[in-house]
Amino acid sequence: MPRVVRTRVELEGRMTDELALVEGKDLPGWTGERTIVGTPTTRIDGAQRVTGRARYTQDITLPGMLHVRFVRSQHARARVVRVDDTRARELRGVRAVLHRSNLPKAPFRGEETIFREEARFVGEEVAAVCAESEETAAAAIRLVDVEYEVLPHVVDLEDAISEQAPRLDEKGNVSESGSHSRGDTERALRDADVVVDATYRTSTQLHNSLETHGAVAHWDGERLTVWESTQHVFGVREGLHLALGLPYSRIRVICEFMGGGFGSKGGAGKYTIAAALFARQLGAPVRCVYTREEENLAAGNRSATLQHIRVGWTGGRTGRISGLEHISYSNSGQGRWVADPTGPTNTLYKIADLSTKSYRVVTNAGSLSAFRAPGYVEGTFALESALDELAEQVRVDPLELRRRHATSIDPLMALRYTQKRLLDCYRIGAKEIGWSRRKRGGTPGSAEHRRRGMGMASQIWFGGGGPPAFATVHLNPDGTAVIRSGTQDIGTGTRTILAQICAEELGIGVTDVRVDIGDTDAPYGPISAGSLTLASVGPAVRQAAADAREQLLGAAAGVLEVGKRELRVEGGRIVGTSRQTTIEEIFDQLKNYTVIGRGSRFPNPSETALNTFGSHFVQLEVDVRTGEVFLEKIVAVHDIGRVVNPLTAASQVEGGIIQAIGFALTEQRVLDRATGRVLNADLEEYKVPTVRDVPPIVVRFVDVPDRRANNLGARGLGEPPIIPTAAAVANAIANATGARVRTTPMTPDRVMAAFAASRA
Amino acid sequence: MNDVRLRVNGVARQTAVPDHESLLTTLRERLGLPGSKNACEQGECGSCSVLMDSELVCSCLVLTAGADGRAIETVESLGADGVLHPVQQAFVDAGAVQCGFCTPGLIVAAYALLRENPEPSDLEVREALSGNLCRCTGYGTILAAVQRASRAMYRR
After folding, report:
1. Could you please report the per-residue DSSP string of A162-192?
2. How many angstroms separate the CA atoms of A462 and A477, rounded?
3. Interval B2-23: pLDDT, tens
């Protein structure tokens, strides 16, 4: 019987106490060798993806389908005085226009409607047009006449902090979003022999998932079905439920294939609500998919930060850190949530006297949304750069400095980790990159004008997962199995690893498992974010597979007239007695016998900290004439407990590193402060790394099952690989040239400026 | 509207399109071939790559009206009867697919490269695929997939 347990649930560092429903007893961890889990396995849906047969949201075409485009504010801040849709409605093919004055009540993210009275960034939705073709909708938005009362705006983080800035919020533009303090940081810094006092800046990074945000809505008179490119089908259902007032049972959300999200597709968007409203109003299917420009104006970003760090040292070359202060400001745009860049500072090292504060700054820029390790990428850049600056000043090897401050206890909660193998990551990474060859001051490069250097940085993230997550495993009469769960595969390989787990537990082949996910008609699955999918859904799938196996063996024992305990399933066969048989034969005997195994995710162990760890090592060259950075090699080592699929895991790491290289070297949203416009909202001017920018990457895992974590011994991997790379690059540049670049992206002009500063 | 005749994946097709409709839109919305993806509509990402008279193009930059009489090959033309083309198989085997949205374009671009250059060097592959953006894989597996396909196709 299902029962309720109280548990602490974590999502991207935010802890909440929740009730979780579990059933039966959790399985003990696997012992001994696994044959399927841990083996490199190609994607079970690979063929669909390489042939173009995989259907993404933008590929959903329904008979009589209509198309939506948004009218967007051209002002960074303006009151919408009046919307006149007369001319737009007169255009042939236009079916309806929605705006503030005719929109039905549709509560959305704490506001009454999706169109606000005050537009607060360039690109904010002001009205929506629904037409018979995309082209007509695009033409019609130019015919919607909007009267604005333009208001003073501020888009830049540092401008918004200043006293002269227009006040965007009654309480002021700056509000504290987090703080932590232990020991006496001021005294420790005062007593320190050496203090590094530095300011770091990170630029706004745009997700640029290849598939833009979008939804297709269909109202059949009874039920609303929505196809959406999302990381959380149940989250989209929740948003639709709130906005449209429909009961859950009358909303179905489907996401079979989706083209990347990286944190930005966590729930229903205005496009979802608009598509659903039009679909219900007009009784026709409606598609609303963002263009690339809309994506880069209104679909979120990793916000820019301004970070001050003071870190002290006492005791010469055998000394220790004496006090660390980290103060961070994030440009949240109009977003209510803000990521915390001080998270890594609070937890990565054993530092007795530490003080951190983070602030959210509202501006008239497009809102931040979670972007792969939100806050941790920005904060780690500052923290790990500052520690290297300190190491350089006190002449301690940077790796040695980090080892000296290693902690086996989470310093924030004073709890022991379920497992932490960061020192192993250091050891493996140092050997792989050849850290012993690193020289203070760098080494000559491949040409006279080039210098070579090495740098490293550490990483901490969450990724322990937890309840609620449910799955069922159905056995087919032909001996194959179907997993059903309301999780989704956002490109990470969820389908494949769940099939591996099921096959391993059930005793059948991976290709004999079909994985039906991405549908709210299935048992609940959590958001695919926070590196939690594997560690949340995987244990539930294993549980369901074990339940299905036990039911099957019970049936087989009856058919074969032997004791159930004598039997097991191996390679799709029932073995253990002289009468070996296939699953198919058992079903043949029982005719339409149905096996449905059920699984739920049990809570994490209490009184422990559950995190992922890793370190990256970078070797690069810098052209001292131009400031260009040439990456030569990156070594990534991660401790994520058991690795379920080394092939997809390595791909996750490489992909994270490439996004990190973009963050470190090329990617930045450029805003015009005078108008608030994004000057590079496309893929021509916004520089996403290409295949030409990729250095050799060596991926290593500690790969020791974390037996305390969950019944798989596995933790998540989505976010860890994007976290430490940028700091490792900055540290390698400093090692090569003596110049410290404290702003991302570390473009040639910034590197040249750092040269000049280091010579001054 | 323009009456346009195309040969798409070996089949003669006829359709009427507005003056400024892109080949990508025609393929996806009129001809039932959504394998080519729409990700930027400015020829920067390569997700819509197809072959036009054997030449690799971004179909979002080609006007259908101007493509009258041309032969178009899309990702849907590769592989047959449930058997993947060696390029497709190599992408699966090398783990060069993550979300898969950029994949059809990359498959077509890699196919075009290997048809012209059976044994490309690493640099040649990078040059040929530098117009195809991938935000998930990190590209390393894609480079490996092209070499794997080259070996499979030409038994090097």
Report:
1. STTS---STT-SEEEEEEEEES-HHHHHHH-
2. 41
3. 999 999 999 999 999 999 999 9
Average pLDDT, chain A: 96
Contact: A50, B88; criterion CB under 8 Å: yes
Token pair 């009654």 is at which residue? A170
Q: Which of A600, A634, A665 is the last residue of a domain?
A: A600
Name every chain B residue with its beta carbon within 8 A of the beta carbon of A55: 34
Mean pLDDT along residues A614-629: 98
ipTM for the assembly: 0.98
Please tell me which of the candidates B38, B40, B141 has its beta carbon nearest to residue A682.
B40
A748 class by beta-carbon count within 10 Å (0-12 exposed, 13-18 middle, 19+ buried): middle
Considering only CA atoms, which of A118, A531, A177 is closest in space to residue A336?
A177
Q: Sign of the CA dihedral A164, A165, A167, A171?
A: negative
Q: Are residues A633 and A702 in the same domain?
A: yes
The residue ranges of DSSP E strands in A551-641, in sequence order, are 568-570, 573-575, 581-582, 595-600, 612-623, 629-639
| Of A13, A15, A12, the residue nearest A606 (C-alpha) | A15
Q: Is residue A491 located within the same domain as residue A355?
A: no
Specify if A20 maps to a domain.
Answer: no
Counting one residue from chain A and one from chain B, the pairs whose CB atoms sit within 8 A come to 171
Is residue A169 assigned to a domain?
A: no
pLDDT, average across residues A688-706:
96
Q: What is the pLDDT of residues A15-71, one digit of tens each?
A: 888 888 888 899 999 998 899 999 999 999 999 999 999 999 999 999 999 999 999
Element (H, E) at A426: helix A422-433
- The reply to whether residue A493 touches residue B98, judged by beta carbons under 8 angstroms, is yes
CA B18 to chain centre: 24
Scanning A434-518, the segments in alpha helix (DSSP H) are 494-506
Q: What is the pLDDT of residue A591?
A: 81
Among A266, A289, A312, identify where a domain stops: A289
A585 lies in the same domain as A621: no
Distance CA A347, CA A354 (A): 10
- Domain identity same for A484 and A593: yes
A655 interaction partners in chain B (CB closer than 8 Å): 98, 135-138
User: A30 to each of A505, A608, A686, how far by Cα in Å?
Assistant: 9, 21, 46
Other C-beta atoms closer than 10 Å to the C-beta of A704 total 15
> What is residue B156's predicted lDDT score, i.e. its pLDDT?
56
Q: Which of A134, A257, A694 lies nearest to residue B139, judging by beta carbons?
A: A694
Domain containing residue A630: CATH number: 3.30.365.10
All structural domains of chain B, each given as residue ranges with its CATH number in brackets, are: 2-77 (3.10.20.30), 86-154 (1.10.150.120)
Residue A577 has pLDDT above 80, yes or no: no
Per-residue model confidence as pLDDT tens digits over A675-692: 999 999 999 999 999 999
- Identify the domain containing residue A123 by its residue range: 60-151+213-289
Q: Which residue of B has its CA nearest to A45?
A: B92
Residue A146 has pLDDT above 60, yes or no: yes
Q: Which residues contact A112 (CB under 8 A, 6 or more apart)?
A: A105, A106
Query: Has residue A33 been placed in a domain?
Result: no
What pLDDT does A23 receive? 85
A134 & A261 share domain:
yes
Report strand pairing: A354-362 vs A320-333.
parallel
Residue A711 has pLDDT above 90, yes or no: yes
Domain count, chain A: 3
DSSP state of B102: S
Contacts of A580 (CB under 8 A, 6+ apart): A573, A574
Q: List CB contacts (< 8 A) between A50 and chain B.
A: 75, 84, 88-89, 91-92, 97, 100, 103-104, 107
